[in-house]
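#lab-general

N.A. 3:47 PM
ok so I finally got the sequence cleaned up, no stray characters, all 179 residues accounted for. can someone with queue access submit it? mine expired

B.Y. 3:52 PM
send it over

N.A. 3:53 PM
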Amino acid sequence: MSLLRLLNVQGFAGLAAALALGVMLLVEKGETRHWKKQSGQFEQLYRAEQTAFARTVAAYSAAAEAARAADRAAAERVRAEQRAVNERTAHDYEMRLAAARDRARRLQRTAVTAAADPCPGRAAPVPGLSAAPCGVAEAANHDGLLPDAALVATEQAIQLDALIGWVRRQANIDPNAPR
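B.Y. 4:20 PM
back already:
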């Protein structure tokens, strides 16, 4: 009975407080376990998000680099096609000019020969008769232009034609066309 003597109102209050604190400690331990588990799940989610973000950034960086490489390749292809058009146009232009100048020289030699002998292959004139017109000198300049002016006009026409062709071929180069 000595134990009952110790359990007076203050003893019961202390015992009740100790039990209440014990229950609260147990509840708190349960809460702590719960929140540790939740924290671990949130940490896993956070790490998964960070990993996904890093993969996304890497994918975008790789795609951007691939696009830059494709742009460089396309630019080089366009430059090569433009160089080829330039070289082909210049070569064709020079060939056409050379042919026109050669043709002009031959016509000029023919005109000089015709002027020196207006009627080649004709017999000597008969005394007392007037000489018949030959017509070769008139035929050499049938378009009304002097030979030098005709050559300049021909050169300019060739130049304009080459320029028009060059512009059309350059415009046909598609910088966005796949290789």
